[in-house]
Amino acid sequence: MTQIYDRVAVIGLGLIASSMIHAMRRAGLAGTITGYDASPAHMQMAAEDGLCDQLAGSAAEAAEGADLVALCVPVGAMGQVAEEIAGHLKAGATVTDVGSVKRAVVDAVAPHLPPDVTFIPGHPMAGTEFSGPRAGFAELFDGRWCLLLPPEGCDPGALGKLRALWTAMGATVEEMDPDHHDLVCAVISHAPHLIAYTMVGVADDLRRVTDSEVIKFSAAGFRDFTRIAASDPTMWRDVFLNNKDATLEILGRFTEELFALQRAIRTGDGDMLHDYFTRTRAIRKGIIEAGQDTAAPDFGRSTRRPGE
Amino acid sequence: MTQIYDRVAVIGLGLIASSMIHAMRRAGLAGTITGYDASPAHMQMAAEDGLCDQLAGSAAEAAEGADLVALCVPVGAMGQVAEEIAGHLKAGATVTDVGSVKRAVVDAVAPHLPPDVTFIPGHPMAGTEFSGPRAGFAELFDGRWCLLLPPEGCDPGALGKLRALWTAMGATVEEMDPDHHDLVCAVISHAPHLIAYTMVGVADDLRRVTDSEVIKFSAAGFRDFTRIAASDPTMWRDVFLNNKDATLEILGRFTEELFALQRAIRTGDGDMLHDYFTRTRAIRKGIIEAGQDTAAPDFGRSTRRPGE
After folding, report:
1. What are phi and psi of A173, to 5 degrees?
2. CB–CB of B237 and A281 under 8 A?
3. Topology (CATH level 3) of domain A5-176
4. Domain A180-300's class?
5. Which of A81, A247, B275, B286 lies at a CB distance of 3.0 to 4.6 Å from A215, suitable for a disulfide?
6. CA–CA separation, B70 vs B165, rounded Å?
7. ipTM of the complex
8. Does residue B298 belong to the interface with chain A, where contact is any CB pair within 8 Å?
9. Which residue out of B123, B193, B222 would a mutagenesis test of the A interface target, given it has the greatest number of A Cβ atoms within 10 Å?
């Protein structure tokens, strides 16, 4: 593959950032990669592992002279980082981000950036329950979607290069509008995460009643929730605070629906339950046919104990 | 391994039953396995695959002369099957079941059985989202728990043999009381399943708003819910109708907690959210340390598209 950007700055060195760095290196997409993270522990890990070609002392220093600046910090920190780097950006540079919420990021970042810089918000739809500079791997984006949200009148050359970068990192790029993005993500990601966090919290409280049984016998459904609820707390706090309206709307719909099912259980309406569960089964089939999950039973995960 | 039962009857030939048959054969635990299922389609598949040593024309015929009768039908059908087989059971036989609810099964089955038969309810804590005679595999119970719920004064010889069977099929056996079982399962399995069904139902409704995007971009959390919500509709209808009180109690707790988190989002209480999400993260760690799930990111599932 050919190099797409000469100098890339990655600000924030978590799961997505470190995966991007590994994916760019796998295909030789960047000349030099400069990294920065506000956490000294993350900087130490990045230094020990040689994660980046060089580490900067600040976000501004990292951005200096970069052709592409990728903001990979929690959504709530995007505005401040944009303000810090604004005076240090090279004319003609592209700034992008990887936040899970887009309207709030556009509103927080865009006003700070000078007019000779192109801002193209992004959202790679990939992740795991792990976080930090050591959680990343080059294959994270392979076969996954990356949404780009170019503003009206966006420079086509800058957009083409960013599309080429994500494609070469393994993703399929699609363009979307920020508000529609936030609604879709509230349904497929934000509300499910809050619900998983809630169920795990309830189980944690009940642990006192049920001793360690909740953990011991977790295989029966609950453990799928715990994986989601093990995601990075800061990232998710910021997602909910910054996609408040869409998340609350979906949660309202969810509660309404849950009450209808609870009522069917209470009144013994087996037909309603059976119809509902038959309908939801079809969605799984659609997802597997769309290539978005494995058809292997139980995700194909090994159920053996460690050491066996 | 040595044979544990001479003649085993398996009534209902779904995921659990077919896995038991494969696991018994793997270790040579049964002399002859006779199967029966009320569904002609299931009987046809079982016949084509040679799943059992022989197929019976009715539940009563299958139970005739068996040393162990395993009831593997949905929870709501247990009582009727018990009534059908009651007059055909051999003196000294053991009857067990694999239902996910225990108090209702005990109440429905026990009154029908003659006094010279030992009834030991059971619940293997294992499964996948697939169902039917072709969904089973010998390894399903390896490293998983099987709960047995012997009544007071249960014949120790009969209990010892059933424990030996489950152990030889790969499971670790633990004894529990039916009411406590139903509460624990409401937390770790029944409530999570209802919640997953609900969230998938909401997304299905919104599909009209968001076109096919819900399926297309499902990787971001939602697809974990769809796996759970793809489970057998009849089985789950019966679980909810038969573990009504415990499920509704846990769902009540869940709603209370969800409202508290929604309120934190609405009022912008980031500290509350962050603390909550940090606490739930610890539970995942406990589950992995207890050997009940893989530590591999994203369950170690392949994210590649079919054909790649």
Report:
1. -95, 140
2. no
3. Rossmann fold (3.40.50)
4. mainly alpha
5. B286
6. 12
7. 0.84
8. yes
9. B222
Q: Is B194 on the interface with A (CB under 8 A)?
A: yes
Ranges in chain A annotated CATH 1.10.3660.10: 180-300
Task: Report residue B71 as tokens.
Answer: 């009831």
pTM beyond 0.95, yes or no:
no
Q: Looking at chain A from residue 43 to 72, which residues have their Cβ under 8 Å from any Cβ of chain B?
A: none
Contact A280 B197 (CB under 8 A): yes
The per-residue pLDDT for range B55-92, each reduced to its tens digit, is 999 999 999 999 999 999 999 999 999 999 999 999 99
**B206: nearest CB among A139, A187, A280:** A187
Distances in Å between the Cα of B139 and the Cα atoms of A72, A262, B26, B72, B83 are 42, 35, 9, 18, 32
Tell whether A211 is within 8 A of chain B (Cβ).
no
Nearest one of B30, B81, B85, B34 to B55, comparing CA atoms: B34
Is A133 within 8 Å of A18 (Cβ atoms)?
A: yes
Measured distance CA(B36)–CA(A267) in Å, rounded: 32
The reported pLDDT for the residue numbered B63 is 98
Backbone angles phi, psi at A122, to 5 degrees: -140, 165
Cβ-based burial of A152 (10 A; exposed 0-12, middle 13-18, buried ≥19)? exposed
Which three-class secondary structure state does DSSP give residue A232?
coil
Q: Does residue B1 carry a pLDDT above 70?
A: no
The pLDDT value recorded for residue B16 is 97
* Size of chain B in residues: 308
Lowest mean pLDDT among B1-15, B106-120, B292-306: B292-306
CA distance A96 to A162: 9
User: Where does CATH 3.40.50.720 sit in chain A?
Assistant: 5-176
A141, A179, A193, A299: which to substitute to probe chain B, counting the most B Cβ within 10 Å? A299
Q: What percent of chain B has pLDDT over 70?
A: 92
Asked if the Cβ–Cβ distance from B129 to A297 is below 8 Å, we say: yes
Nearest to B11 by CA among B64, B90, B48: B64
Residue written as token pair 């994210």: B303
- Is the CB of residue A208 less than 8 Å away from at least one CB of chain B? no
| Through-space distance between the first and last CA atoms of chain B, rounded to whole angstroms | 42
Contact B294 A276 (CB under 8 A): no
CA A237, CA A227: separation in Å to the nearest integer? Answer: 17
Tokens representing B151 are 């009544």
Q: Is B286 on the interface with A (CB under 8 A)?
A: yes
